[in-house]
Amino acid sequence: MSENGLPPSWEIRVSKSRGIPYYFHPETQESRWEPPPNTDTDKLKAYMATKYSSSNTGADTSSGNKSQGEKIRAAHLLVKHEGSRRPSSWKEANITRSKEEARAIIERHEQSIRQGVVTLAELAKTESDCSSARKGGDLGFFGRGDMQKEFEDASFGLEPGQMSGVVETASGLHLIERIS
Predict the structure, then answer these.
(1) Is 174 one of the catalytic residues?
(2) 111 included as an active-site residue
(3) In angstroms, what is the C-alpha Rg of the chain?
(4) pTM listed for this prediction
(5) d(CA 103, CA 160)
(6) pLDDT of residue 63
(7) Nearest to 143 by CA among 71, 61, 76, 73
(8) CATH number attached to the domain at 11-53
(9) pLDDT digits (tens, 9 = 90+) for 138-148
(10) Is 148 a catalytic site residue?
(11) E-state strands within the chain
């Protein structure tokens, strides 16, 4: 077991498109967002906190202006419908709900979050149709041009800690919470 807690031959790399760490095995070419089996999670958490902390995002905000390379971090809860770009998820192989049914579901979720009954992260783990559900909807850091325009515009329009209303993209209906 290495200092980072990963099993032999596994490496931590950073996604070029999303700017967040992932796990890679050079011999098998397997890559994954979640740690591989037999990872020492306590060691990994400590390693990630020192090497990949949010203070190392590369965003230059020292001038007070948003730099062109600014990256933000957000989480979301996605409800797909039959008209979504890929109407399937980790929960359902074939999503057949209508857009109206999806809207009713996500509006109920929004109400529960705004009333303080549950957090977006808690709800995303069980209810989001995105694979980010396992991370509480956390998408990590991303910049302009990394996400669908509607999603990006809504995300960059939020202040850290704020949650959007329902945002519609080709992927489905989202609630977005800006983390940083």
Answers:
(1) yes
(2) no
(3) 18
(4) 0.62
(5) 25
(6) 36
(7) 71
(8) 2.20.70.10
(9) 999 999 888 99
(10) yes
(11) 11-14, 21-25, 30-32, 71-79, 138-143, 167-169, 172-178
d(Cα 4, Cα 39) in Å, to the nearest integer? 9
Active-site residue among 2, 15, 112, 148?
148
Taking CA 171 as the corner, what is the angle to CA 166 and CA 172, rounded to the nearest 5 degrees?
35
**Phi and psi (nearest 5°) for 97?**
-70, 150
pLDDT at 33 over 50: yes
| Residue 91 token pair | 């929960």
Dihedrals phi, psi of 140, to nearest 5 degrees: 75, -160
* 3-state secondary structure (DSSP) of residue 109: helix
In the set 81, 130, 132, 155, the catalytic residue is 130
Q: What residue ranges do the domains of the chain occupy?
A: 11-53, 71-178
Residue 109 among the catalytic residues: no
| CATH fold of the domain at 71-178 | Chitinase A; domain 3 (3.10.50)
Q: How far apart are CA 137 and CA 149, in angstroms?
A: 19
